[in-house]
Specification:
about 15% strand; about 50% helix; alpha/beta; 7-stranded mixed beta sheet; 6-stranded mixed beta sheet; flat
């Protein structure tokens, strides 16, 4: 029997709960269950699909057995789920008995891999299963669920079909190459290829945003020393996470914490204060702070209300020099409880938010400002954001193939070479949802899953 034909089993729930669900799948599934569980009525082998049965594992536990018959199961095979008490001894002994009855332990992601092989889902949907399990925010869940439902794959299939149709015209010309016939208007081909390229590039570019929603949008908290960065982080988190001190330069390295606001996960990064210093370690921390400005999607710039305006102008200039075009800066006047001038117009800052992390003044307004852009981005994307680096790389390969095709059109490259570029682009997109997927790619994809999924 090959590995694909084995009957497999594994816990599908994490340790620590009251109940554990053990999955069993494969052609010998029902025989293995009947060898281990004595049903009160009938047997797994004789049971109808989508039915639940009470049974007993002799001398061990009372269990419930859910029966799913092929192909109407998660894996597309005969499958059962045994719900038992989550005692480590009960679970391990039940797995041992299933092993003695002919099952082997499943590998990481093997149940989902079998679902993919059986055509229950494509590869992008299979990866969405893992993303759905790992989702820690509403936004991450929304993206994973949309991908699981197939909306993302459908759009990619439509794009791939456009390129296939372009390639079909090229292949037709190859069949009549001796007659030097052109079946496709070159101007029309160029227009269609450019449209497909624009859509592919737009999807590839969405990876930065999609990955941020999936893993948490990076928010750097920067400002001069003692401007209240660590106090603000603690206030947002509702706990004393960052060390707070009146001594300048207390924060020497970045401190990172995740917080969900408005259904979106944000990775808040408290950085070392910006100032001129000769102290080596502090200087390294300041350089890391400046690097975080270049990496973040949002930068909270804290400007101490009690500091000289000339000093604040230097901080504003340093931050602006490091900001990416797609990064959003939120200018914050900190320590508003101690007074000081309103320097917004003098520094040329719009939308300056005054806060006091100690009293809570302005924190609601600040949270709203942080969330505003993310909500708009998520609505505009309508779930069609690339969240997987493998997908982005495939899109970039397809884009490069299409650019090469367009260059070939402009230089009257032979039809056979043009057709090869289109075949390559089609194959690259096909790897995303599993139309063209080497075994080593499948191993990498499903190797990241948990054992019981």
């Amino acid at each position: 029997m090959s590995l694909a034909e084995d009957t497999i089993c594994a816990p599908a729930t994490s340790a620590g709960g009251a109940i554990c669900v053990i999955r069993v799948s494969g052609s010998g599934c029902f025989a293995a269950v009947d060898a281990v569980v004595r049903m009160r009525r009938g047997s797994a082998a004789s049971a109808k699909g989508f039915s639940v049965h009470f049974g007993e594992v002799e001398g061990l536990d009372e269990v419930l057995v859910c029966v799913f018959r092929a192909p109407q199961s998660y894996t597309g095979e005969d499958m059962a789920e045994i719900s038992c008490h989550a005692s480590p001894y009960v679970v391990s002994e039940l797995l041992r008995r299933l092993g003695a009855a002919g099952c082997r332990m499943a590998g990481p992601g093997e149940f989902t891999r079998r679902a993919f092989t059986a055509g229950k889902m494509d590869l992008a949907q299979a990866e969405a299963v893992a993303d759905l399990i790992a989702a820690s925010s509403q936004a991450a869940h929304k993206l994973a669920f949309s991908q699981l439902r197939g909306h993302y794959s459908q759009r990619l299939r439509e794009l791939r079909q456009q390129i296939i149709e372009l390639g079909a015209l090229m292949e037709l010309e190859l069949d009549f190459s001796e007659e030097e016939v052109e079946f496709a208007d070159r101007g029309r081909l160029e227009l269609l290829a450019r449209e497909a390229l624009a859509q592919i590039e737009r999807l590839a570019d969405s990876f930065r945003l999609g990955n941020a929603f999936k893993r948490g949008i990076p928010v750097a908290i920067v400002g001069q020393v003692n401007s209240g960065k660590s106090t603000l982080l603690n206030a947002l988190l509702g706990e004393e996470r960052a060390l707070v001190s009146d001594i300048p330069g207390t924060t020497r390295d970045t401190v990172e914490e995740v917080l969900v606001l408005g259904g979106v996960a944000y990775r808040f990064i408290d950085t070392a204060g910006l100032r001129q210093t000769a102290e080596t370690v502090e200087k390294m921390g300041i350089e890391r702070s400046l690097e975080q400005i270049g990496k973040a999607s949002i930068v909270l710039v804290l400007l101490d209300a009690s500091a000289p305006v000339a000093e604040l102008a230097g901080v504003v200039a340093d931050v602006r020099a490091r900001l990416r075009e797609d990064c959003r800066a939120i200018w914050v006047r900190s320590k508003s409880d101690i007074g000081g001038p309103d320097f917004a117009s003098e520094l040329g800052l719009e939308g300056l938010i005054s806060i006091s992390a100690k009293t809570g003044e302005g924190l609601t307004e600040l949270r709203d400002a942080i969330c505003a852009g993310a909500r708009q981005d998520l609505l505009a994307a309508d779930g069609l954001l690339v969240t997987n680096q493998r997908h982005q790389q495939a899109l970039l390969r397809a884009a490069e193939d299409l650019r090469r095709f367009l260059d070939g059109l402009s230089t009257a490259l032979p039809t056979d070479l043009l057709a090869e570029d289109l075949r390559s682009a089609t194959a690259a997109l096909g790897t995303i949802f599993g139309e063209v997927t080497p075994d080593d790619v499948l191993g990498e994809v499903f190797g990241r899953f948990c054992i019981g999924k």
